[in-house]
Amino acid sequence: MDKIKVSGCIVTYNAKGKVDATIESLLEKTKGVDFTLYVVDNASADGTAEYLKEKYPGVKVIASETNSGFGAGHNKVIPFLQSDYHVVINPDILLKDDAITELVRFAEADREIGLVSPQIRFEDGRLQMLAKRNPTVRYLGNHWIHKGDEPNKLMREYCMLDMPEGESFEITNATGCFMFFRTRVFVDIGGFDERFFMYLEDCDITRRVSEKCKAVFNPGVTVFHLWERESKRNKKLFIIHIISIIKYFLKWGIKF
Fold first, then answer.
1. What does the pLDDT average to over 25-54?
2. How many CB atoms lie within 10 A of CB 57?
3. Domain for residue 157, yes or no?
4. What's the rounded Cα separation, in Å, for the pair 206 and 187?
5. CATH number of the domain that residue 97 is part of
6. pLDDT, tens digit, for every residue of 38-50?
7. Average per-residue pLDDT in the chain?
8. Domain assignment present for 142
9. Is 178 domain-assigned?
10. Which ranges in 5-158 belong to alpha helices (H)?
């Protein structure tokens, strides 16, 4: 029997030498499916595209002439997709087992699933507290100002931390660092809304998927994310983040 076809895409920007660990873990661990990996390079000035083409001849590298942002970068692979499932992958993701094949098995058991978000952990095993409900002003404000590792009441609510441990459940907000789509769903909704240069495009696309089928969190599959939360420290990224929040509320309506 032919293996199920899965495509994956990483978008890079000035990431020469920084994305190798992600690519190598994907290629090494993903064995149970027919896996094709794309890298879209958003006009890097450090030779990322050329470096990746030479080092990884089996990876399909698309060199963009402009830096059009996270979602627009991922959308560039849509014309090439012939897979059953498609994975959006950050350049700082690591796999420690064949998580993609496990997600395929999970989605194959329920044809109403259009998007799966696995459990995301830091490399040292600590759980990343990531949103699973639609963003509101109070959720976002609390997320920005909260200090420490212990979640408060609003964070527990936003991240749905009080759901039964180990059980899958439907969500309306999946993290963009690793999104597992049924390819026809990703293509049918037109991929990401390119009005979002970066940030909240994941909230938006999850919401659009949820209007057509199910978006599900599966804690039985884990991937590892070397998350640095750069927009909290970088002024330019902070401004981009705020602009995306405004665009999101203009599109979906502001909720407090």
1. 97
2. 9
3. no
4. 13
5. 3.90.550.10
6. 999 999 999 999 9
7. 95
8. no
9. yes
10. 20-29, 48-55, 70-75, 99-108, 137-145, 153-158
* Assigned token pair, 137: 């002003």
Q: Is residue 251 part of a domain?
A: no
**Span 171-194, pLDDT tens digits:** 999 999 999 999 999 999 999 999
Bridge partners, residue 61, by sequence: 39
Q: Cα 16 from chain centroid? A: 20
Question: What's the pLDDT at 41?
Answer: 97
Structure tokens at 185: 């769903």
Question: Based on the structure, what is the number of domains in the chain?
Answer: 1
Tens-place pLDDT, residues 70-123: 999 999 999 999 999 999 999 999 999 999 999 999 999 999 999 999 999 999
Whether the Cβ atoms of residue 231 and residue 238 lie closer than 8 Å to each other? yes
Residue owning tokens 């696995």? 118
- Work out the average pLDDT over 10-26: 96
Separation of alpha carbons 62 and 11, rounded Å:
9
How far apart CA 237 and CA 214 sit, in angstroms, is: 31
Six-digit token pair at 110? Answer: 């329920």
- Please state, as a whole number, how many other Cβ atoms lie within 10 Å of the Cβ of residue 28: 10
For 138, the token pair is 């109070």
Q: Are 166 and 217 in contact (CB under 8 A)?
A: no
Q: Residue 39: which domain range?
A: 5-129+168-229
